[in-house]
Amino acid sequence: MKKIFGVVVCVALAAGSAAAALTVTSPNGGESWAKGSTKLITWTAAGVGGNVKLILLKAGVKMGDIAASVPASQQSYSWTVGNYEGGTADPASDYKIRVRTLDGAQVDTSNGTFTIGPSGPAPAFALTAPNGGESWPRGSTRLITWNPGIATGSVRLDLYKGGTGLSNYLGCIKTMTPASSGAYPWPVGDREGMTRAAEGNDYYVVIHAYSPDMKDPGNGPFTIAPAEHLTPGKTAVSQATTAGGLFALTYPRRGDRWYKGTGYTITWTTGGLGASRVRLDLLDIKGTTVVLPIAEDIANSGQHFWAVPLSLPDAETLYRMRIRTMDNAHSDMPAAFYIAKAKPVSGPPTVKVTAPGGPSQLGTGLTYPIRWTSTCGKSVNGPTDDAFDIELMNAAGTTRARWLLERGLATYDGGNPDGSHAWHWDWQIPWNETTGTYRVRVKSLAGNCLGLSEPFPVVYQQEHYDYVVNPTYQNCFYILNWCCPVHMNPTDLTLPPLQGVPGLARVGFYFKMVYLTLYDETVWKHLVLRSLLRVGDEDWYKDKGHVQEVKMTIVRQWATDMWAKKNPCLGGVVVLTDPVPCENGNPNLPRRNAPPEMHGISVPIDTSQGNVWTVDLTQPYLILTNNGYPDLGLMLYPATESLPFAPISSGHYEFGNSECYKITLRFRFAKDITH
Q1: Domain tally for the chain?
Q2: Fewer CB in a 10 Å sphere around the end CB: N or C, the chain?
Q3: pLDDT one-digit tens code per residue, 138-186
Q4: 399 half-sphere exposure, CB direction, 13 A CA radius
Q5: In a domain? residue 623
Q6: In 3-state terms, the chain is what percent helix, strand and coil (to 5)?
């Protein structure tokens, strides 16, 4: 793998690619920013893809992460000055910003130090654009901007007209976007799940913060102006020629016949305008009236999939299609083509899986569409399929390896000329998927019919390496309960030697009950001992690649048998999702309190046999890291933490156990070999 990785790099250099480079541009030395104010950290990212981490340094030493993962291409980050994960920097003049890729391959630091000054007034949460008086062309892309102030998490953007009351609400522009970004690129008029708002004045954008709950409607209304039209002198002629060649629609062609409910791939030549954004429209036969927009502000990629809407007239009708750049500088509109009513469905109901299948390899950690056609939910007016089962099968297609989708929804891609309907569902192959040859089986629940793909191979697409670490330990006492007469000296119930050994994890429990005939009273003590394990800071693993496997090896170093009753000691391990305090209580204080709850995913361990155990923690780690939980460590806990009180007529009852363990964690990481 190492050799393959090196060859990829050498070939890229030989081809003359520009060297990738990160460069911090602000703050870069000499700035003075008030603590708590909002400033932009900026950088350039020539040839750098993926995400970067922003780090705050003081006197060259890391204070903490400002942002753990930001797209490199974003090239800016709205920062509340002084804030970093886990703390806030004090005013001083020796700070720098470091930006680095998550794999550490590219890194840059401010050329000079900057100053974090005393706090000024808290910045107000406010919409800054549109803020009254703007005129934005419908369909053009404009930035909605705001000052995050004290808002955290996400904000919502809503569109209103004629005021900002409930009756003026027109829909949601964006349900959730990061408050800290301070900006959202808006195709003017677009609303989630609704058609684009019409031209007109007296519009308002209202920004609503979730935490804390607050909103701002700006200072006044703005206008959605008519869409930008063709630049004078640049007419909509067919096959417009640019400096880079022909910019022209190539499909549909003159006289082609397309069917309602059917999906087609519209194609065109890009004319050397690869960086431009384009739009596609369906027009009447004269080419003067837009019947409906097909797509707006899409990449000039040379193709776009379109499912012909069933809402068009049933009668066979001639239309024209137009493509143009978003700046209206280039346009093409070929001759007319037909759109007709879909053909009736014929033949028995079937499901046919068209992808994946064949010799092409699928890589772990990547996403592929599973595609199929169905006539099970057959109808000339659209599909009646309501849900699908998708299963990963063995190479023979006889045994299910696991469910991919159970009674779930798929994406409808349109109808086909034969009357079938096309669907797809995106499958993200897990990083730790077992390699081998598989098939996919799709079942339509509408007609209870099945389709099976051709066999296909799944292979690793990453460079693998193991990271072995011995975690740090902190042994935690918890007094579950304690009761004793007020006249009794608490030291009469002495603490057993549970303190542990440096460098080893230790768990245990202790229970003692004494019946005192002199006072006719009972005293008891119940302690538990857990061990908190930490590997590093909360996101130590995030720049190492994708977690594929986590194994814990536990070796019993020694065990005590201090009391007559011996019980198995280690009960299991919890992969924590919430921080757990680890405060060793003073056992000589008479009190009652329960040990804190452990929030996370628990993995029981059977330690009744042997002295060495291997525990698979892969699934808990995959679940937690995929859901964005930080790594808060692990907690070993004893098998017995709560014991029943048995009535004792005389004498005393005492038992307990503790054991020490050496812990090793082995993480298997994977990095994409093309990175």
Answers
A1: 5
A2: N
A3: 877 777 888 888 888 888 999 999 998 888 889 899 888 888 777 787 8
A4: 4
A5: yes
A6: 5, 50, 45
More confident residue, 166 or 568: 166
Tracing tokens 């790594």 back to the chain, one arrives at: 631
pLDDT of residue 455: 92
In the block, tokens 């509109």 appear at 333
Q: What is the number of residues in the chain?
A: 675
CA nearest to 33, candidates 110, 87, 93: 93
Please report where in the chains the tokens 């893809």 appear, as a residue.
Answer: 49
Buried b (16+ CB within 10 A) or exposed e, 89-122: beeeeebbbbbbbbeeebebbbeebbbbbeeeee
Task: Give CA angle at 570 (566, 575), nearest 5°.
Answer: 165
Residue 555: name the closest of 656, 660, 665, 638 by CA: 660
Answer yes or no: is 555 within a domain: yes
DSSP, residue by residue, 203-219: EEEEEEEEETTEEE--S
Which has the minimum average pLDDT: 254-263, 330-339, 591-600? 591-600
Tokens standing for 600?
């996370």
Contacts of 632 (CB under 8 A, 6+ apart): 538, 576, 577, 578, 579, 580, 600
In the chain, the amino acid numbered 423 is W
Q: What is the mean pLDDT of residues 417-425?
A: 78
Cα(376)–Cα(56) distance, integer angstroms: 58
Q: What is the pTM of this model?
A: 0.37
DSSP state of 586: -
With b for 16 or more beta-carbon neighbours within 10 A and e for fewer, the 609-643 pattern comes to eeeebebebeebbbebbeeebbbbbbbbbbbbbeb
Which of residues 315, 340, 365 is at a domain's end? 340
Nearest Cα residue to 145 out of 180, 190, 179, 183: 183
Question: What residue numbers bound the domain in which 361 lies?
Answer: 351-460
Phi, psi (rounded to 5 degrees) for 491: -70, -10
DSSP character string of 247-286: EEEEESPTT-EEETTBEEEEEEEETT-TT-EEEEEEE-TT
* Position 346 in a domain: no
Give the pLDDT score at 363.
81
Closest CA to 383 of 356, 351, 354: 351
Give yes or no for residue 242 having a pLDDT over 70: no
Who's near 613: CB < 8 A, 6+ residues apart? 553, 554, 605, 606, 607
Cα separation, 66 vs 85, whole angstroms:
6
With contact defined as beta carbons under 8 Å apart, do 79 and 66 qualify?
A: yes
- Other C-beta atoms lying within 10 Å of the C-beta of residue 361: 13
CA distance to 239, 349, 373, 380, 427, per residue, from 451 (Å): 43, 11, 9, 22, 17
All residues at 6 or more sequence positions from 134 whose CB lies less than 8 Å from its CB, including other chains:
142, 222, 223
What DSSP element (H or E) covers 620?
helix 618-626
Taking the C-alpha atoms of residue 493 and residue 490, their distance in angstroms, rounded to an integer, is 6
Are 144 and 65 members of one domain?
Answer: no
Residues 372 and 323 in one domain: no
Determine contact, residues 33/117, Cβ cutoff 8 Å.
yes
Q: Which candidate, 20, 21, 24, 45, places its Cα nearest to that of 112?
A: 24
DSSP state of 650: S
Residues 510, 579 share a domain: yes
The mean pLDDT value of the chain amounts to 77
Give the CATH number of the domain where residue 50 resides.
2.60.40.10
Out of 186, 202, 225, pick the residue that ends a domain. Answer: 225
Could you list the beta-strand ranges (E) of 434-545. 436-444, 449-452, 456-459, 462-469, 472-483, 505-516, 521-534
